[in-house]
Amino acid sequence: MEYVQAPATISQANILCCTCGVPIPPNPANMCVACLRTQVDISEGIPKQVTVNFCKQCERYLQPPATWMSCALESRELLSLCLKKIKSSMTKVRLIDAGFLWTEPHSKRIKMKVTIQKEVMNGAILQQVFVVEFVIQYQMCDDCHRVEAKDFWKAVVQVRQKTTHKKTFYYLEQLILKHKLHQNALNIKEMNDGIDFYYSTKQHAQKMTDFLQCTVPCRSKTSQRLISHDIHSNTFNYKSTYSMEIVPVCKDNVICLSPKLAQSLGNMGQVCVCVRVTSTIHLIDPNTLQIAEVDGGTFWRNPFSSLCSPRQLEEFIVMDIDVLRNQKLGAGAGIRSNKHLLAELWVQKTAEMDGQQYHCRTYLGHLLNIGDLVQGYDFVNSNINDEHLNKMKPHTIPDVVLIKKCYDRNRRSKRRNWKLHEMERDREGMAPNDERQYEDFLEDLEEDEALRKNINIYRDASKIAVESDTDEEGAPRVSLAEMLEELSLTDATGEDGAEMMTE
């Protein structure tokens, strides 16, 4: 075994500080840290107290020259904003570290500990830690100032639809909530036939109009009104108005196409049913199951309207049903629906059980059986004034057009374990919402899986959990897999979080 002698450690000789005489390791300045700090202050010129402007109305901080930012306390965004306030005075030092010190939330003070380095005498590098205090000063931002001055908007988007039912508006509201486009609006006001969105900038209004044109079939008009004009700087102040008109067709409406449009859609029948309204109008022919989509441009070139209002829906009972399979279509026919089944029915009004029976065709053959209740429109006993319908031959006009199968509405409402969010809007001077129309929209979501894929559905914790997609009588339901959990304060801060936030 060989023993290897370890090399002798070379001890570094200390020197005496040239000022106080304390033994120290040698350094380029030949001074101890205490004496060096008395001679040089590397934080000189950096302000120890800075003012930060804060708007109490919208809770945003001012980032000069004119940008307002939403920052939480002790967040990375607020740290970046505070460092920019002292950045101009730190050009000759190097920033090593920065962090917040705890202060009372209501003290109007933000303390930040800053660590810097600088090369001083003869190349010696000195590091120093100091505290910068930021004083919060209240200042109202321009947006809030315009709100208080009652001159708060620069652009307004007026969304209108000339229909008696608000199904399209309920669907549009959920899309706006999902994409959070309502957050930029200064005010949302409900009108008789639509809703108005007020914005502080023209860019936010244009963003909303672009979203509407991609979401629902509509057409737009733009107008400007001159508010003021500065002749010296040649600047103009305008208020812009964007008028968006949505097609006057909703789900479950019966419409009559013009012969030219029906032929261009694959020789469809002129009398069709609207099964869905998304970015296009989805139509189905109840006699042949042909389906077609009509976009906004096609509609405005060949307009059509609903033949009957939802209030004219009547309840029928199925007396006899005969499913039609392998039906041949004519030349030039379009696409047929695979989700529906064509059937011939004999129906009778439930209000007139001793009355006559009506023969019709329907696309609901996959849902209906003898004895089922179904809603539809009675064309025989209705006075309909439509340009295209009046020109049709009488034998081509159906006696009854069936729309949807009837279920027990009270039972469906009680067992519905999900809910939707609503936008906060000004309803001053408006009549209360039609609960029946909103209930119809909720039922449409349960019956149409493709429609509810585009919106957020939240689980209602106060209702019983559902595992199946249908109930005892066969009514469709929303499955748990399609529901989202609603975020609450207790989820983010624990059991005591709500009490802490309300104190």
Give the tags:
disordered C terminus, 503 residues, alpha+beta, 5-stranded mixed β-sheet, 5 domains, Nuclear Transport Factor 2, Chain: A, single chain, 6-stranded mixed β-sheet, 20% helix, disordered N terminus
Identify the strand order in the major beta sheet: 5-4-3-8-7-6
Total beta-strand segments: 25
Give the quaternary arrangement of the chains: single chain
Q: What number is the mean pLDDT?
A: 83
Biggest β-sheet description: 6 strands, mixed
Outline: elongated
Q: What's the helix count?
A: 13
Radius of gyration: 36 Å
Summarize the amount of helix as a percent range.
10-25%
- Tell me the count of domains: 5
Function: Acts as an adapter for the XPO1/CRM1-mediated export of the 60S ribosomal subunit.
Protein name: 60S ribosomal export protein NMD3
InterPro entries: Nmd3, Nmd3_N, NMD_SH3, OB_NMD3
Pfam families: NMD3 (PF04981), NMD_SH3 (PF21193), OB_NMD3 (PF21192)
Topology:
Layout: E1 15-16, E2 23-24, H1 33-39, E3 49-55, E4 60-63, E5 67-69, H2 76-86, E6 94-101, E7 109-119, E8 125-138, H3 142-148, E9 155-160, H4 167-179, E10 187-190, E11 194-199, H5 202-215, E12 218-230, E13 235-246, E14 254-256, H6 259-264, E15 271-277, E16 281-284, E17 291-294, H7 296-301, E18 314-323, E19 343-349, E20 358-362, E21 373-378, H8 387-390, E22 400-405, H9 409-414, E23 418-419, H10 435-447, H11 449-452, E24 457-459, E25 483-484, H12 489-493, H13 497-502
